[in-house]
Design a protein that fits this description.
With about 45 residues, the protein is an all-beta fold. The protein has no helices and 2 strands. A two-stranded antiparallel ribbon has the order 1-2.
Length: about 45
């Protein structure tokens, strides 16, 4: 589990346009990660 101040591990996700985007590609920029459950699923 990550602790406050730890460096986030690199990962890759699909953008809403279908392109791959990795966390490492954003190094040095301020970002906000927002995780939420898929629509119409419990919890």
């Amino acid at each position: 589990m990550l602790q406050v101040g730890d460096t986030a591990p690199d990962f890759t996700v699909k953008t809403h346009e279908g392109n791959d985007l990795s966390l490492s590609a954003l190094r040095g920029k301020k970002i906000l990660l927002w995780f939420y459950p898929k629509a119409d699923t419990p919890g």
